[in-house]
Design brief:
Radius of gyration: 28 Å
Number of strands: 36
Low-confidence stretches: 526-556
Structural class: alpha+beta
Protein backbone atom coordinates (compact mmCIF):
# COMPACT_ATOMS: atom_id res chain seq x y z
CA UNK A 1 0.00 0.00 0.00
CA UNK A 2 1.34 3.41 -0.95
CA UNK A 3 1.63 5.69 2.09
CA UNK A 4 0.58 9.23 1.17
CA UNK A 5 1.08 12.46 3.16
CA UNK A 6 -2.08 13.75 4.80
CA UNK A 7 -2.75 16.76 2.50
CA UNK A 8 -2.55 14.56 -0.58
CA UNK A 9 -4.60 11.80 1.03
CA UNK A 10 -7.39 14.26 1.86
CA UNK A 11 -7.48 15.68 -1.67
CA UNK A 12 -7.20 12.23 -3.20
CA UNK A 13 -10.31 11.01 -1.36
CA UNK A 14 -12.39 14.09 -2.16
CA UNK A 15 -15.45 13.64 -4.38
CA UNK A 16 -14.50 16.56 -6.62
CA UNK A 17 -10.90 17.08 -7.67
CA UNK A 18 -8.76 18.16 -10.60
CA UNK A 19 -5.48 16.25 -10.75
CA UNK A 20 -2.32 17.84 -12.08
CA UNK A 21 0.70 16.03 -13.45
CA UNK A 22 4.42 16.66 -13.53
CA UNK A 23 6.86 14.53 -15.53
CA UNK A 24 10.57 14.85 -14.73
CA UNK A 25 13.40 13.65 -16.96
CA UNK A 26 16.51 13.12 -14.85
CA UNK A 27 19.89 13.82 -16.41
CA UNK A 28 23.28 14.16 -14.76
CA UNK A 29 23.52 17.94 -15.19
CA UNK A 30 19.88 19.09 -15.01
CA UNK A 31 16.40 17.62 -14.86
CA UNK A 32 13.71 19.36 -16.92
CA UNK A 33 10.10 19.05 -15.77
CA UNK A 34 6.98 19.06 -17.97
CA UNK A 35 3.58 19.93 -16.50
CA UNK A 36 -0.06 19.44 -17.41
CA UNK A 37 -1.10 22.82 -15.96
CA UNK A 38 0.38 26.28 -15.62
CA UNK A 39 1.31 27.84 -12.31
CA UNK A 40 2.54 24.82 -10.32
CA UNK A 41 5.06 26.32 -7.88
CA UNK A 42 8.27 24.93 -6.36
CA UNK A 43 9.22 22.53 -9.17
CA UNK A 44 13.03 22.30 -9.24
CA UNK A 45 15.00 22.87 -12.46
CA UNK A 46 13.76 23.99 -15.85
CA UNK A 47 9.96 23.86 -16.10
CA UNK A 48 8.04 23.66 -19.37
CA UNK A 49 4.39 24.29 -18.56
CA UNK A 50 1.22 22.88 -20.10
CA UNK A 51 3.02 20.33 -22.24
CA UNK A 52 1.92 16.96 -20.78
CA UNK A 53 -0.87 15.81 -23.08
CA UNK A 54 -1.36 12.21 -21.97
CA UNK A 55 0.06 9.67 -19.54
CA UNK A 56 -0.95 6.07 -20.05
CA UNK A 57 -2.13 4.08 -17.06
CA UNK A 58 0.23 2.28 -14.72
CA UNK A 59 -0.31 -1.44 -14.26
CA UNK A 60 1.31 -4.20 -12.27
CA UNK A 61 0.52 -7.85 -11.68
CA UNK A 62 1.84 -10.67 -9.53
CA UNK A 63 1.82 -14.46 -9.65
CA UNK A 64 2.76 -15.29 -6.06
CA UNK A 65 2.92 -19.05 -6.61
CA UNK A 66 5.56 -18.42 -9.29
CA UNK A 67 7.40 -15.63 -7.43
CA UNK A 68 6.66 -13.34 -10.36
CA UNK A 69 5.90 -9.64 -10.57
CA UNK A 70 5.45 -7.67 -13.79
CA UNK A 71 4.80 -4.01 -14.44
CA UNK A 72 3.61 -2.35 -17.60
CA UNK A 73 5.54 0.38 -19.37
CA UNK A 74 4.37 3.98 -19.61
CA UNK A 75 3.63 6.07 -22.67
CA UNK A 76 3.95 9.82 -22.06
CA UNK A 77 2.92 12.34 -24.71
CA UNK A 78 4.55 15.76 -24.46
CA UNK A 79 3.76 18.69 -26.76
CA UNK A 80 6.81 20.26 -28.41
CA UNK A 81 6.16 24.00 -28.03
CA UNK A 82 7.64 26.42 -30.56
CA UNK A 83 7.16 29.85 -28.96
CA UNK A 84 9.10 29.11 -25.74
CA UNK A 85 11.82 26.67 -24.70
CA UNK A 86 10.77 23.30 -26.08
CA UNK A 87 11.22 19.60 -25.35
CA UNK A 88 13.48 19.45 -28.40
CA UNK A 89 15.66 22.22 -26.98
CA UNK A 90 15.98 20.42 -23.64
CA UNK A 91 16.78 16.98 -25.07
CA UNK A 92 19.18 18.46 -27.65
CA UNK A 93 20.98 20.47 -24.97
CA UNK A 94 21.48 17.35 -22.84
CA UNK A 95 22.91 15.49 -25.83
CA UNK A 96 25.04 18.21 -27.46
CA UNK A 97 26.12 20.29 -24.48
CA UNK A 98 26.17 17.77 -21.63
CA UNK A 99 26.96 14.67 -23.68
CA UNK A 100 24.08 12.57 -22.35
CA UNK A 101 21.43 10.93 -24.52
CA UNK A 102 17.89 10.32 -23.37
CA UNK A 103 18.07 6.51 -23.57
CA UNK A 104 18.01 4.97 -20.11
CA UNK A 105 17.26 8.30 -18.40
CA UNK A 106 15.09 8.10 -15.31
CA UNK A 107 11.50 9.31 -15.68
CA UNK A 108 9.43 10.30 -12.64
CA UNK A 109 5.67 10.87 -12.76
CA UNK A 110 4.01 12.96 -10.03
CA UNK A 111 0.32 13.58 -9.31
CA UNK A 112 -1.11 16.40 -7.20
CA UNK A 113 -4.27 18.38 -6.56
CA UNK A 114 -2.87 21.83 -5.79
CA UNK A 115 -0.54 24.42 -7.31
CA UNK A 116 2.29 23.47 -4.92
CA UNK A 117 4.64 20.76 -6.16
CA UNK A 118 5.57 20.05 -2.53
CA UNK A 119 2.14 18.46 -2.08
CA UNK A 120 2.50 16.12 -5.08
CA UNK A 121 3.14 12.37 -4.78
CA UNK A 122 5.38 10.30 -7.04
CA UNK A 123 3.30 7.48 -8.55
CA UNK A 124 5.71 5.92 -11.04
CA UNK A 125 9.42 5.77 -11.84
CA UNK A 126 10.78 4.12 -14.97
CA UNK A 127 13.53 4.57 -17.55
CA UNK A 128 13.34 5.70 -21.18
CA UNK A 129 13.33 2.89 -23.74
CA UNK A 130 12.20 4.71 -26.88
CA UNK A 131 11.21 8.15 -28.18
CA UNK A 132 9.18 9.13 -31.23
CA UNK A 133 7.86 12.36 -32.74
CA UNK A 134 4.26 12.34 -33.98
CA UNK A 135 3.02 14.07 -37.11
CA UNK A 136 1.15 16.49 -34.86
CA UNK A 137 4.38 17.69 -33.26
CA UNK A 138 4.38 15.81 -29.96
CA UNK A 139 6.97 13.54 -28.41
CA UNK A 140 5.88 10.09 -27.24
CA UNK A 141 8.28 8.77 -24.62
CA UNK A 142 8.05 5.03 -24.01
CA UNK A 143 9.38 3.81 -20.67
CA UNK A 144 9.86 0.53 -18.81
CA UNK A 145 10.74 -0.49 -15.28
CA UNK A 146 14.30 -1.38 -14.35
CA UNK A 147 13.39 -5.01 -13.62
CA UNK A 148 13.48 -5.59 -17.39
CA UNK A 149 17.25 -5.59 -16.97
CA UNK A 150 17.01 -8.75 -14.87
CA UNK A 151 16.25 -10.66 -18.08
CA UNK A 152 19.91 -11.10 -18.92
CA UNK A 153 21.78 -14.40 -18.96
CA UNK A 154 23.90 -15.31 -15.97
CA UNK A 155 26.01 -18.24 -14.75
CA UNK A 156 27.57 -19.18 -18.09
CA UNK A 157 30.78 -20.96 -16.96
CA UNK A 158 34.05 -19.76 -18.49
CA UNK A 159 36.42 -22.38 -19.90
CA UNK A 160 40.04 -23.06 -20.74
CA UNK A 161 42.24 -26.13 -21.44
CA UNK A 162 45.20 -27.68 -19.66
CA UNK A 163 48.72 -27.22 -21.06
CA UNK A 164 50.53 -29.90 -18.99
CA UNK A 165 49.71 -33.25 -17.46
CA UNK A 166 48.03 -33.23 -14.05
CA UNK A 167 49.01 -35.57 -11.23
CA UNK A 168 46.53 -36.56 -8.51
CA UNK A 169 48.45 -34.60 -5.86
CA UNK A 170 49.24 -31.45 -7.87
CA UNK A 171 48.31 -28.14 -6.20
CA UNK A 172 49.23 -26.00 -9.22
CA UNK A 173 47.49 -26.70 -12.52
CA UNK A 174 48.73 -25.17 -15.76
CA UNK A 175 46.19 -23.97 -18.34
CA UNK A 176 46.10 -21.92 -21.54
CA UNK A 177 44.39 -18.89 -19.96
CA UNK A 178 43.09 -18.45 -16.40
CA UNK A 179 42.38 -14.72 -16.65
CA UNK A 180 38.58 -15.11 -16.89
CA UNK A 181 38.35 -17.19 -13.71
CA UNK A 182 37.68 -15.27 -10.50
CA UNK A 183 37.70 -16.08 -6.81
CA UNK A 184 34.64 -15.18 -4.73
CA UNK A 185 34.39 -14.25 -1.07
CA UNK A 186 32.47 -16.82 0.98
CA UNK A 187 30.47 -15.50 3.92
CA UNK A 188 30.03 -17.77 6.93
CA UNK A 189 26.95 -19.47 5.43
CA UNK A 190 29.04 -21.40 2.89
CA UNK A 191 29.57 -25.04 3.84
CA UNK A 192 32.74 -25.30 1.78
CA UNK A 193 35.53 -22.79 2.58
CA UNK A 194 33.53 -20.34 4.74
CA UNK A 195 35.15 -16.93 5.33
CA UNK A 196 37.62 -17.49 2.50
CA UNK A 197 38.04 -16.13 -1.01
CA UNK A 198 38.26 -19.06 -3.41
CA UNK A 199 37.20 -20.30 -6.82
CA UNK A 200 36.31 -23.68 -8.31
CA UNK A 201 36.69 -25.50 -11.59
CA UNK A 202 35.83 -28.91 -12.96
CA UNK A 203 38.22 -31.09 -14.93
CA UNK A 204 35.82 -32.24 -17.59
CA UNK A 205 37.66 -35.44 -18.48
CA UNK A 206 37.53 -36.89 -14.95
CA UNK A 207 34.66 -34.99 -13.34
CA UNK A 208 36.90 -33.85 -10.50
CA UNK A 209 36.04 -30.52 -8.87
CA UNK A 210 38.99 -28.48 -7.65
CA UNK A 211 39.06 -25.50 -5.28
CA UNK A 212 41.78 -22.87 -5.81
CA UNK A 213 42.89 -19.73 -4.01
CA UNK A 214 44.67 -17.83 -6.78
CA UNK A 215 45.59 -17.60 -10.45
CA UNK A 216 48.41 -16.46 -12.66
CA UNK A 217 47.81 -15.75 -16.31
CA UNK A 218 48.28 -19.44 -17.12
CA UNK A 219 47.76 -21.42 -13.92
CA UNK A 220 45.59 -22.10 -10.89
CA UNK A 221 47.42 -22.02 -7.57
CA UNK A 222 46.62 -23.20 -4.04
CA UNK A 223 44.51 -26.05 -5.39
CA UNK A 224 42.58 -28.37 -3.08
CA UNK A 225 41.76 -31.49 -5.00
CA UNK A 226 38.61 -33.59 -5.10
CA UNK A 227 36.05 -31.35 -3.38
CA UNK A 228 32.24 -31.82 -3.44
CA UNK A 229 32.62 -35.58 -3.15
CA UNK A 230 34.64 -36.09 -6.32
CA UNK A 231 37.91 -38.01 -6.69
CA UNK A 232 41.40 -36.81 -7.62
CA UNK A 233 42.81 -38.44 -10.75
CA UNK A 234 45.76 -37.91 -13.05
CA UNK A 235 45.10 -36.35 -16.46
CA UNK A 236 47.47 -36.84 -19.40
CA UNK A 237 48.37 -34.03 -21.78
CA UNK A 238 49.52 -34.64 -25.36
CA UNK A 239 51.53 -31.63 -26.52
CA UNK A 240 51.39 -32.88 -30.14
CA UNK A 241 47.59 -32.91 -30.31
CA UNK A 242 45.57 -29.89 -31.52
CA UNK A 243 44.87 -27.39 -28.75
CA UNK A 244 41.11 -27.78 -29.11
CA UNK A 245 41.44 -31.46 -28.17
CA UNK A 246 43.19 -30.77 -24.87
CA UNK A 247 41.23 -31.68 -21.69
CA UNK A 248 38.86 -28.85 -20.71
CA UNK A 249 38.75 -26.90 -17.48
CA UNK A 250 35.25 -25.51 -16.80
CA UNK A 251 34.34 -22.99 -14.11
CA UNK A 252 32.27 -24.52 -11.29
CA UNK A 253 29.77 -21.99 -9.90
CA UNK A 254 28.89 -22.41 -6.22
CA UNK A 255 26.77 -20.13 -4.01
CA UNK A 256 25.38 -20.73 -0.52
CA UNK A 257 23.80 -17.95 1.51
CA UNK A 258 20.44 -16.73 2.88
CA UNK A 259 17.94 -16.59 0.01
CA UNK A 260 17.16 -12.83 0.13
CA UNK A 261 20.88 -12.06 0.39
CA UNK A 262 21.56 -14.24 -2.63
CA UNK A 263 18.76 -12.53 -4.56
CA UNK A 264 20.44 -9.17 -3.92
CA UNK A 265 23.78 -10.56 -5.07
CA UNK A 266 22.33 -11.99 -8.30
CA UNK A 267 20.61 -8.69 -9.10
CA UNK A 268 23.41 -6.27 -8.24
CA UNK A 269 26.60 -8.32 -7.84
CA UNK A 270 27.19 -6.97 -4.33
CA UNK A 271 27.80 -9.40 -1.48
CA UNK A 272 25.90 -7.75 1.37
CA UNK A 273 27.71 -6.76 4.54
CA UNK A 274 31.25 -7.59 3.42
CA UNK A 275 33.79 -4.80 3.93
CA UNK A 276 35.68 -3.85 1.87
CA UNK A 277 33.10 -4.43 -0.83
CA UNK A 278 33.15 -7.89 -2.38
CA UNK A 279 31.23 -8.73 -5.52
CA UNK A 280 30.26 -11.68 -7.65
CA UNK A 281 31.96 -12.09 -11.07
CA UNK A 282 30.24 -9.97 -13.73
CA UNK A 283 28.79 -13.00 -15.53
CA UNK A 284 27.14 -14.20 -12.30
CA UNK A 285 24.79 -11.24 -11.85
CA UNK A 286 22.37 -8.96 -13.74
CA UNK A 287 24.30 -5.73 -13.14
CA UNK A 288 21.41 -3.70 -11.71
CA UNK A 289 22.53 -0.54 -9.94
CA UNK A 290 21.91 -1.06 -6.20
CA UNK A 291 20.17 2.33 -6.21
CA UNK A 292 17.31 0.61 -8.09
CA UNK A 293 16.81 -2.01 -5.37
CA UNK A 294 14.88 -1.43 -2.16
CA UNK A 295 17.53 -2.83 0.16
CA UNK A 296 15.40 -2.07 3.24
CA UNK A 297 12.58 -4.37 2.14
CA UNK A 298 15.12 -7.17 1.68
CA UNK A 299 16.74 -6.49 5.04
CA UNK A 300 13.40 -6.47 6.85
CA UNK A 301 11.85 -9.53 5.21
CA UNK A 302 12.22 -11.44 8.50
CA UNK A 303 14.99 -13.18 10.42
CA UNK A 304 13.53 -16.59 9.54
CA UNK A 305 14.55 -15.86 5.95
CA UNK A 306 17.50 -13.54 6.54
CA UNK A 307 19.15 -12.34 9.72
CA UNK A 308 21.36 -9.54 8.40
CA UNK A 309 23.55 -9.72 11.49
CA UNK A 310 24.29 -13.42 10.95
CA UNK A 311 24.83 -14.70 7.39
CA UNK A 312 24.82 -18.27 8.71
CA UNK A 313 21.19 -17.88 9.89
CA UNK A 314 17.90 -17.56 8.05
CA UNK A 315 16.80 -19.68 5.11
CA UNK A 316 20.03 -20.65 3.37
CA UNK A 317 19.94 -21.93 -0.19
CA UNK A 318 22.78 -23.88 -1.78
CA UNK A 319 23.59 -23.98 -5.49
CA UNK A 320 26.53 -25.94 -6.85
CA UNK A 321 27.32 -26.41 -10.53
CA UNK A 322 25.09 -23.63 -11.86
CA UNK A 323 24.93 -23.23 -15.64
CA UNK A 324 23.67 -20.58 -18.02
CA UNK A 325 20.18 -19.32 -17.26
CA UNK A 326 18.06 -16.19 -17.36
CA UNK A 327 18.57 -14.08 -14.23
CA UNK A 328 14.89 -13.30 -13.83
CA UNK A 329 13.88 -16.93 -14.30
CA UNK A 330 16.46 -18.02 -11.74
CA UNK A 331 15.22 -15.50 -9.16
CA UNK A 332 11.56 -16.40 -9.71
CA UNK A 333 11.85 -20.18 -9.79
CA UNK A 334 14.75 -20.84 -7.46
CA UNK A 335 14.41 -18.05 -4.87
CA UNK A 336 10.99 -16.40 -4.71
CA UNK A 337 8.92 -19.52 -5.41
CA UNK A 338 10.89 -21.42 -2.80
CA UNK A 339 10.75 -18.96 0.10
CA UNK A 340 7.30 -17.55 -0.65
CA UNK A 341 8.18 -14.03 -1.76
CA UNK A 342 7.72 -11.83 -4.83
CA UNK A 343 9.51 -8.67 -6.07
CA UNK A 344 7.08 -5.73 -6.48
CA UNK A 345 8.16 -2.49 -8.14
CA UNK A 346 7.52 0.58 -5.99
CA UNK A 347 6.46 4.07 -7.09
CA UNK A 348 10.15 4.99 -6.77
CA UNK A 349 10.98 2.34 -9.39
CA UNK A 350 12.91 0.17 -6.96
CA UNK A 351 12.70 -3.63 -6.89
CA UNK A 352 11.31 -4.63 -3.50
CA UNK A 353 10.63 -7.87 -1.66
CA UNK A 354 7.36 -8.98 -0.06
CA UNK A 355 6.08 -12.21 1.39
CA UNK A 356 3.25 -14.13 -0.23
CA UNK A 357 0.09 -13.64 1.83
CA UNK A 358 -1.75 -16.51 3.44
CA UNK A 359 -5.16 -15.74 1.97
CA UNK A 360 -7.89 -17.13 4.20
CA UNK A 361 -11.38 -15.72 4.78
CA UNK A 362 -10.30 -13.59 7.71
CA UNK A 363 -6.82 -12.51 6.53
CA UNK A 364 -5.81 -9.05 7.77
CA UNK A 365 -6.61 -6.31 5.24
CA UNK A 366 -5.63 -2.70 4.52
CA UNK A 367 -8.90 -1.43 3.01
CA UNK A 368 -12.57 -2.33 2.67
CA UNK A 369 -14.22 -2.43 -0.75
CA UNK A 370 -18.00 -2.27 -0.74
CA UNK A 371 -20.84 -0.73 -2.79
CA UNK A 372 -19.79 2.69 -1.52
CA UNK A 373 -16.46 2.62 -3.41
CA UNK A 374 -16.87 -0.19 -5.97
CA UNK A 375 -18.13 1.34 -9.21
CA UNK A 376 -18.62 -1.97 -11.02
CA UNK A 377 -17.50 -5.57 -10.88
CA UNK A 378 -17.31 -8.66 -13.05
CA UNK A 379 -18.47 -12.20 -12.44
CA UNK A 380 -17.24 -14.13 -9.42
CA UNK A 381 -15.19 -16.99 -10.83
CA UNK A 382 -14.72 -20.19 -8.85
CA UNK A 383 -11.63 -21.19 -10.80
CA UNK A 384 -11.66 -24.99 -11.05
CA UNK A 385 -8.51 -24.93 -13.19
CA UNK A 386 -6.46 -23.64 -10.26
CA UNK A 387 -7.44 -26.42 -7.87
CA UNK A 388 -4.53 -28.59 -6.65
CA UNK A 389 -4.42 -31.26 -3.97
CA UNK A 390 -1.42 -33.33 -5.03
CA UNK A 391 1.97 -31.66 -4.62
CA UNK A 392 5.47 -32.84 -5.46
CA UNK A 393 8.84 -31.22 -4.84
CA UNK A 394 12.07 -32.59 -6.33
CA UNK A 395 15.16 -31.50 -4.39
CA UNK A 396 18.71 -32.35 -3.28
CA UNK A 397 20.27 -31.71 -6.70
CA UNK A 398 23.45 -33.72 -7.21
CA UNK A 399 26.00 -31.61 -9.08
CA UNK A 400 27.99 -34.65 -10.21
CA UNK A 401 25.11 -36.68 -11.68
CA UNK A 402 23.10 -33.54 -12.61
CA UNK A 403 19.84 -34.91 -11.20
CA UNK A 404 17.54 -34.54 -8.22
CA UNK A 405 17.96 -37.38 -5.74
CA UNK A 406 15.05 -36.75 -3.37
CA UNK A 407 11.34 -36.27 -3.88
CA UNK A 408 8.70 -35.20 -1.38
CA UNK A 409 5.02 -35.78 -2.05
CA UNK A 410 2.08 -34.27 -0.20
CA UNK A 411 -1.51 -35.39 -0.58
CA UNK A 412 -4.40 -33.24 0.65
CA UNK A 413 -6.95 -35.96 1.39
CA UNK A 414 -9.58 -33.49 2.61
CA UNK A 415 -9.50 -31.67 -0.71
CA UNK A 416 -9.56 -34.94 -2.67
CA UNK A 417 -12.64 -36.12 -0.78
CA UNK A 418 -14.45 -32.90 -1.68
CA UNK A 419 -13.27 -32.21 -5.21
CA UNK A 420 -11.53 -35.34 -6.51
CA UNK A 421 -7.84 -35.77 -7.21
CA UNK A 422 -6.12 -33.26 -9.47
CA UNK A 423 -2.99 -33.36 -11.54
CA UNK A 424 0.16 -33.18 -9.46
CA UNK A 425 1.61 -29.68 -9.00
CA UNK A 426 5.39 -30.10 -9.30
CA UNK A 427 8.33 -27.88 -8.37
CA UNK A 428 12.04 -28.54 -8.67
CA UNK A 429 14.32 -26.60 -6.35
CA UNK A 430 18.07 -26.85 -6.79
CA UNK A 431 18.59 -24.64 -3.74
CA UNK A 432 17.16 -27.25 -1.34
CA UNK A 433 19.89 -29.63 -0.25
CA UNK A 434 19.89 -32.61 2.09
CA UNK A 435 22.81 -31.23 4.06
CA UNK A 436 20.66 -28.28 5.16
CA UNK A 437 16.99 -28.91 4.59
CA UNK A 438 14.32 -31.38 5.61
CA UNK A 439 10.82 -32.33 4.61
CA UNK A 440 9.64 -29.98 7.40
CA UNK A 441 10.94 -27.02 5.39
CA UNK A 442 9.07 -28.28 2.34
CA UNK A 443 5.92 -28.75 4.40
CA UNK A 444 5.94 -25.06 5.33
CA UNK A 445 6.15 -24.10 1.66
CA UNK A 446 3.34 -26.45 0.68
CA UNK A 447 1.12 -25.17 3.48
CA UNK A 448 1.04 -21.66 1.97
CA UNK A 449 0.06 -23.10 -1.40
CA UNK A 450 -2.65 -25.27 0.16
CA UNK A 451 -4.20 -22.13 1.63
CA UNK A 452 -4.66 -20.90 -1.90
CA UNK A 453 -5.30 -23.86 -4.13
CA UNK A 454 -6.67 -26.94 -2.34
CA UNK A 455 -10.18 -25.61 -3.01
CA UNK A 456 -11.12 -23.65 -6.16
CA UNK A 457 -9.91 -20.06 -5.58
CA UNK A 458 -12.21 -17.09 -6.15
CA UNK A 459 -11.32 -14.45 -8.74
CA UNK A 460 -13.19 -11.24 -9.48
CA UNK A 461 -12.44 -8.00 -11.34
CA UNK A 462 -13.61 -4.73 -9.80
CA UNK A 463 -13.52 -1.11 -10.88
CA UNK A 464 -13.01 1.03 -7.80
CA UNK A 465 -13.23 4.72 -6.93
CA UNK A 466 -10.19 6.88 -7.81
CA UNK A 467 -9.57 7.48 -4.09
CA UNK A 468 -8.30 3.86 -3.88
CA UNK A 469 -5.33 4.51 -6.17
CA UNK A 470 -3.02 3.98 -3.17
CA UNK A 471 -3.64 0.21 -3.30
CA UNK A 472 -0.84 -1.94 -4.73
CA UNK A 473 -0.43 -5.52 -5.87
CA UNK A 474 0.07 -7.86 -2.96
CA UNK A 475 -2.18 -5.80 -0.68
CA UNK A 476 -5.08 -7.61 0.98
CA UNK A 477 -8.51 -5.97 0.90
CA UNK A 478 -11.87 -7.01 2.34
CA UNK A 479 -14.50 -7.20 -0.41
CA UNK A 480 -18.14 -6.97 0.65
CA UNK A 481 -20.76 -7.23 -2.12
CA UNK A 482 -24.18 -8.16 -0.66
CA UNK A 483 -25.66 -8.70 -4.13
CA UNK A 484 -23.15 -11.43 -5.07
CA UNK A 485 -23.80 -14.98 -3.87
CA UNK A 486 -20.81 -17.02 -2.69
CA UNK A 487 -21.68 -20.67 -2.15
CA UNK A 488 -18.33 -21.28 -0.40
CA UNK A 489 -19.06 -18.62 2.22
CA UNK A 490 -19.63 -19.50 5.88
CA UNK A 491 -21.69 -16.32 6.23
CA UNK A 492 -25.46 -16.30 6.56
CA UNK A 493 -26.77 -15.46 4.05
CA UNK A 494 -23.87 -16.75 1.87
CA UNK A 495 -22.99 -13.48 0.17
CA UNK A 496 -19.54 -12.31 -0.86
CA UNK A 497 -17.67 -10.96 2.16
CA UNK A 498 -14.08 -12.12 2.53
CA UNK A 499 -10.45 -11.08 2.24
CA UNK A 500 -8.94 -10.89 -1.23
CA UNK A 501 -5.40 -10.33 -2.47
CA UNK A 502 -4.80 -7.78 -5.24
CA UNK A 503 -3.05 -9.66 -8.04
CA UNK A 504 -3.39 -7.04 -10.75
CA UNK A 505 -3.75 -3.28 -10.49
CA UNK A 506 -4.27 -0.77 -13.28
CA UNK A 507 -4.69 2.97 -12.75
CA UNK A 508 -5.76 5.33 -15.53
CA UNK A 509 -4.31 8.64 -14.37
CA UNK A 510 -6.34 10.59 -16.92
CA UNK A 511 -9.76 9.34 -15.82
CA UNK A 512 -8.80 8.25 -12.32
CA UNK A 513 -10.22 4.75 -12.84
CA UNK A 514 -8.77 2.03 -10.59
CA UNK A 515 -9.12 -1.51 -11.92
CA UNK A 516 -8.23 -4.46 -9.71
CA UNK A 517 -8.15 -8.21 -10.15
CA UNK A 518 -8.75 -9.88 -6.80
CA UNK A 519 -7.87 -13.40 -5.66
CA UNK A 520 -9.23 -15.25 -2.62
CA UNK A 521 -8.95 -18.72 -1.18
CA UNK A 522 -12.07 -20.73 -0.35
CA UNK A 523 -10.09 -23.18 1.79
CA UNK A 524 -11.07 -23.87 5.38
CA UNK A 525 -7.80 -23.94 7.29
CA UNK A 526 -6.36 -27.37 8.10
CA UNK A 527 -2.84 -28.29 9.11
CA UNK A 528 -0.43 -30.74 7.50
CA UNK A 529 1.09 -32.93 10.23
CA UNK A 530 4.83 -32.23 10.50
CA UNK A 531 7.08 -34.82 8.87
CA UNK A 532 9.47 -36.95 10.88
CA UNK A 533 12.28 -35.14 12.76
CA UNK A 534 11.04 -31.57 12.06
CA UNK A 535 13.74 -28.94 12.04
CA UNK A 536 16.69 -31.33 11.80
CA UNK A 537 18.70 -31.83 8.64
CA UNK A 538 18.75 -35.47 7.58
CA UNK A 539 21.95 -36.67 5.95
CA UNK A 540 22.17 -39.14 3.09
CA UNK A 541 23.59 -41.63 5.62
CA UNK A 542 20.37 -41.43 7.65
CA UNK A 543 18.26 -42.36 4.63
CA UNK A 544 20.54 -45.30 3.87
CA UNK A 545 20.80 -46.60 7.42
CA UNK A 546 17.08 -46.45 8.09
CA UNK A 547 16.22 -47.99 4.71
CA UNK A 548 13.48 -45.48 3.92
CA UNK A 549 12.31 -44.55 0.45
CA UNK A 550 13.45 -41.23 -0.93
CA UNK A 551 9.77 -40.39 -1.32
CA UNK A 552 8.19 -38.87 1.77
CA UNK A 553 4.40 -38.96 1.86
CA UNK A 554 2.40 -36.94 4.37
CA UNK A 555 -1.40 -36.80 4.52
CA UNK A 556 -3.26 -34.21 6.56
Amino acid sequence: MRIDPQPFESSNSARTKEPRYVVQLLFDVSSPAFTSHAGIANIPGDVIEQTVVRISGTSQSIRPDEGRSTIGGLSIQITDLTDVISATDEIKDQLRTNGQGIRGSEVRVFVGYSDDFGAFVRVATQVVRNVSMTAAGSYVIETADVSRDVRVSVFEPVQTVITASIQAADTTINVADASDFETVWHVSSFTDAPNQKVGYFKIEQTGEIVRYTGTTGTSFTGCTRAVFGTGAKAVDFDATAPAERAPKIVEFIYLEMPAPMLALAVMTGDIYGVSPGETLPAHWHAGIDPAWVDITQHENIGADLWDTSDPSGGFIVRFAGLTKTNARTFLEREIHSLIGTFPPIGADGKVGLRRVNKILNDAAYVAVLNPGNVISHGSLLHDQTKLFNLFRIDWNYDEVSSEFTRTTLFTDSTSISQHGATETKTWQFRGLHGSRHTAAIISERIDTLRDRYSSPPLIIDVRAAPSLNFLEVGDVVFLELPNVADYTSLNSPPTLARSFEIQRSSIDWQSGAVSLQLFASSVEKTVIPPPQSPGNALSDAWYTSEGLSLIHISEP
